[in-house]
Amino acid sequence: MAEPKKGDELATAILNKKSKPNRLVAEDAVNDDNSVVALSLAKMDELQLFRGDTVLLKGKKRKESVCIVLSDDTVSNEKIKMNRVVRNNLRLRLGDVVAIQSCPDVKYGKRIHVLPIDDSVEGLTGNWFEVYLKPYFLEAYRPIYKGDTFIVRGGMRAVEFKVIETDPAPYCIVAPDTVIHC
After folding, report:
1. Which DSSP state fits 9?
2. Parallel/antiparallel/unpaired status of strands 23-28 and 36-39
3. Cα–chain center distance at 84
4. Cβ pair 115, 161 in contact under 8 A
5. In which region does residue 49 sit, left (phi positive, over 0), alpha (psi from -120 to 50) or beta (all else)?
6. Which of 23, 43, 132, 148 is 20 to 30 Å from 78 at the Cα level?
7. How many CB atoms lie within 10 A of CB 156?
8. Taking 70 as the threshold, does the pLDDT of residue 134 lie above it?
9. What is the C-alpha separation between 32 and 85, in angstroms, rounded?
10. Number of H helices, E strands in the chain
11. What is the pLDDT of residue 12?
């Protein structure tokens, strides 16, 4: 059999499918955690990720977010499970493609500034920090990204907050010694 010529390889190179292991299809998650995404164990091994690693997700319209990755046996290799809040931050719908990459250099935040979205706090009085934010961030070590929104359930209501500023920017992990301005 004749060897293919160099010119033939270049002519048909566009037909070859490139492998993109870090491009996954968004799927709905059963858990209601705003800072967690789930991958199959085989995909985590392929991407050299470990349980509890922080990952940078890239969605549509140049939107990015940070999450913690966990393994899930029910997820197929080409899919990623994320809840509605994470999908909204990335401007994704179910079935859209999301890029994932390891983000090992996420620092603990010195301070963050979050504000409630106006229509979710209509008729609410009292200290939003004590009722909503303190239980949400307490001992959770949640990664947040500037511009992200997240929903906190508490006090018989769900309130939506937006991350206005983080120090260090543009993302950090909210630790117990992080100052939260609201």
Report:
1. H
2. unpaired
3. 11
4. yes
5. beta
6. 148
7. 5
8. yes
9. 9
10. 5, 12
11. 72
Kindly report the three-state secondary structure assignment for every residue of 53-74. CEEEEECCCCCEEEEEEEECCC
For 84-111, the pLDDT digits (tens) are 999 999 999 999 999 999 988 899 999 9
pTM of full prediction above 0.85:
no
**C-alpha to C-alpha distance for 146 and 169, rounded to whole angstroms:** 7
Query: Is the preceding omega at residue 176 within 30 degrees of 0, hence cis?
Result: no
CA–CA dist 98, 181 (Å, integer): 31
- Residue-wise pLDDT tens digits, 47-89: 999 999 999 999 989 999 999 999 999 999 999 999 999 999 9
Closest CA to 64 of 98, 39, 38: 98
**Cα–Cα distance measured from residue 141 to residue 119, given in angstroms and rounded to the nearest whole number:** 28
In order of 2, 102, 146, the CA distances from 10 in angstroms are 17, 33, 44
Q: On the CB side of 148, how many CA atoms lie within 13 Å of its CA?
A: 29
